[in-house]
Amino acid sequence: MTKFIIGVLMTIFLMNFSTINGQSIRSLKSDIHSSYVPKYGSIEKVINTNTFYSKSGVEKKKDVYEYSTKMDTITEKRYESSEITAELTFIFNQNKQLTSRSFKRKIPYSGWKYDLATYKYDSTGLIERTEFDSNGNKVINAVIKNDSLSNIIELRLFDKDNELIGYETATYDYPSNNWVYRVFDKTGNLVTTNNYEIDLSINTDRKYNEQGDCIYYPRNWGENDDVYFELQIKYDKRGNWVQKKIYEVKLNGNRVVDRSINRIFKRKIVYKNN
Question: What are the backbone angles phi and psi of residue 113, rounded to the nearest 5°?
Answer without folding.
Answer: -115, 135
